[in-house]
Amino acid sequence: MPKSKLIAFLSGATALAAAQTAFAEAPLSATVLEFADPTTLFVADSAGAKIHAYTLPEAAPATASAAYTFEGFSRVLAETLGIAETEIAFNDLAVNPATQAAFVSLTAAGTPALVMVTPDGTITPLDLSAIPSTSTELATGPDDGVTFWRDIPSASLTVTDLDYTDGTLFVSGLSTGEFASTLNQIPYPFGEAAQSTSVEIYHAVHDQMETRAPIRAMEIVDLDGVQTVIAAYTCTPLVTLPTASLTDGAHITGNTIAELGYGNTPLEVLLFDVYDREGNASPFVMVVNRELQANLIPLEAVAAAANAPGLTEPVSMGMEAGVETIQTPMSGVYQAADQDPQFLLALKRNLDTGAMDLVSIRKGVYLRLSDFISEYDFPDYVYADNQMGQGIKGFHNLLKAEEGFPELIEQ
Prior knowledge:
Elements: H1 15-23, E1 33-37, E2 40-45, E3 50-55, E4 69-70, H2 73-81, E5 88-95, E6 102-108, E7 111-117, E8 123-125, E9 133-137, E10 147-148, E11 152-153, E12 161-165, E13 168-174, E14 181-187, E15 195-203, E16 208-210, E17 217-223, E18 226-232, E19 237-242, E20 251-253, E21 255-259, E22 266-275, E23 281-289, E24 294-298, H3 299-306, E25 321-322, E26 326-328, E27 333-338, E28 343-349, E29 356-362, H4 387-402
Parallel strand pairs: 15-20
Antiparallel strand pairs: 1-2, 2-3, 3-9, 4-29, 5-6, 6-7, 7-8, 10-11, 12-13, 13-14, 14-15, 15-16, 17-18, 18-19, 19-21, 21-25, 22-23, 23-24, 24-26, 27-28, 28-29
């Protein structure tokens, strides 16, 4: 059973009140998260058009991979904060690269909040006013008077994603101006001026050039020696942008290398290694989606597509085009992060209970065995007494242990 623990200066029902006091002089919102290193956490304040860099205390690194099995996380979190579960809106998820602790940004009863969660189920609300930090303002925030669907402010898209590499924080989002989709490059530590580039793309399903829709998720990768932004947009074009083209004040056009499906919001673009049975690693890019299955793509295929002409002709709605992908059954995922060499971590809606779970998903499988009732689960099922059957049995036993069902392991 997961347990919850408040940090020393927070206790019981006073947790949210203390958080409100803490945030009074801190962010107006806590949205996108990104680690630069184990002690530096960037927190985007979309409402305030700022990026805050918090210096976390050093902590002992994890000595082994540990799977998260925190079912009913949203209910326990609500109890910890002293509010109703329906008053929580989840914003983002990031994993400390050393400790494997999960950091979750949210809006709790209208108040920005940040919590740390460990694999054993300990929840620690963080008082950001007590953590050393530096900040930088975004000079290109959108018009506060513009709303979407009646009451969604455009400021909520001031920052849509963050990615840090080689001393530079890349910030995607909306800006004020003719070309609203903007990609900022901010040197860190903060102090030097940011570079701002406006970006347009060809959206093959819409059959038009698009200048307003911002990048929703991105990852900075090396493609054959060329540092490149892999960017995913709503509805769901996948685009590459060499970072060398992102000069201050420039307006550039990305290379649309794929259409992954319509009616979808991409959540994350992740880069990680996948290991074969012999232990050989191959890099893959994964696009994690809100409405569609995730897309897994070998990095070498992305590189080949980036070096070729992109899509320039319309694509029928519902059809995929461009670089081929492997669809993976990561449905119900609300946010995801790269946890460690073995696991992805996901905020995942439990389709049976309605709660938000915080669970690990093994790379190479991209599903949780306990989400299904299948032929293998019937009490009279017997695994085939051959290499394949025993291999499946061993693999199922591994997943059962990781997902919190050791009593179901087959001997």
